[in-house]
Write a structure and sequence with these properties.
By secondary structure, the protein is mainly alpha-helical. The protein contains 16 helices and four strands. Strand 3 and strand 4 (147-151) form a beta hairpin. Helix 9 (200-217) crosses helix 14. The longest helix has 26 residues, at 11-36. It starts with 10 loop residues before the first helix and ends in a 6-residue tail after the last helix.
Length: 327
């Protein structure tokens, strides 16, 4: 079913495409120039380092400085034990080795916040707090009002021994190169509305909108990083886009509300589940990838703003997208 797809184009068509890309690049450069001029003061507090270096006598000062990190229902004895716990000390040490500084990440965050501010002017830049979360990879970035919490112990690298009991497809995303991706995701999930329609098509387009925002807010990151694929996984998805779509259409998945489709094609998984021998060759979340391409096609074929696109119902967006993957 799947194969590496090759496309032959006539020279005149190639020239036309190159011309369009040149014009698009010029427009994109102007936008990026405007974005780079947005004044942005990113405040980052390394709570992970402060707590790791603290003594019991320092707890009151830390509680006064970070009251939101010390829930009142927990007695001081909890924090005192944590300061002395050998596993916690090892965790602090490993985070310190991986993140002795946070300068490159700060630059990434500044760029992300500038892009969000450009497209969403009402966005209020949060104060960023780095901490350890006992490897809570389901909540590695939390955006809450004026605060953003980043669990650095979930970005030590996919091969880190802390992750040896975590499934490989999950551990693959526990790398510092994905911090900006997760930061963007923490924001986009607040602005992309979930639709009442629970069809597979609607779910694909929901994720497609999230990923399209990654395009706009992380234009300098590789596509693979935006969707958290490896290079090989990205190439597989791109090469097999047409047969993937054909499979969805021929099996009448688009308007199905079967929750099993979510598990097979939308949720994190080691591979997508078509029920074929070569399933193991595929990356997971291919439904998200297809939704991404549908939303991209919609934006290419319609004169709408980013904010307008977010509220377009899935069925309308799909019909107006004129999406058709090439053979």
């Amino acid at each position: 079913m799947y194969r590496k797809l090759l496309f032959n184009r006539r020279p005149i068509f190639t020239i036309f495409i190159v011309s369009l890309l040149f014009l698009a690049c010029n427009d994109g450069d102007k936008v990026e120039e405007e974005i780079s001029k947005i004044n942005m003061d990113v405040q980052i507090s390394r709570f992970d380092r402060e707590f790791a270096n603290a003594k019991i006598k320092d707890l009151d000062d830390l509680k006064n400085k970070y009251p939101y990190l010390f829930p009142e229902q927990y007695p001081d004895s909890i924090w005192e034990v944590k300061l002395k716990d050998s596993i916690q000390i090892e965790l602090f040490r490993e985070v310190g080795k991986t993140f002795p500084e946070f300068d490159s990440e700060k630059d990434d965050l500044k760029s992300v916040f500038q892009h969000i501010k450009y497209y969403f002017p009402k966005f209020k830049v949060p104060r960023v707090i780095t901490l350890t979360s006992e490897v809570d990879y389901n909540n590695n970035v939390i955006l809450a009002d004026s605060l953003m919490l980043i669990g650095l112990d979930t970005y030590l690298g996919s091969e880190h021994y802390f992750y040896q009991d975590i499934q490989q497809y999950i551990a693959a995303g526990l790398d510092r190169k994905y911090i900006a991706t997760d930061v963007v995701n923490s924001f986009t999930r607040k602005v992309v509305p979930r639709m009442n329609d629970r069809t597979f098509l609607s779910e694909m387009i929901y994720y497609g909108k999230l990923l399209y925002l990654q395009d706009k807010l992380l234009p300098n990151k590789d596509e693979a990083v935006r969707i958290k694929y490896t290079k090989d996984q990205m190439e597989w998805a791109q090469a097999n886009e047409e047969p993937i779509w054909r499979n969805f259409v021929e099996n009448e998945y688009l308007y199905s509300t079967d929750n099993d489709l979510r598990l097979r094609f939308l949720e994190p998984a080691p591979f997508s589940k078509f029920g074929l021998e070569l399933d193991n060759e595929s990356p997971g979340r291919l439904g998200q990838y297809i939704g991404w391409q549908i939303v991209r096609s919609f934006m290419e074929n319609n004169e709408v703003t980013l904010q307008q696109m977010l509220s377009v119902p899935a069925e309308e967006l799909f019909k107006k997208s004129r999406y058709k993957p090439q053979n």
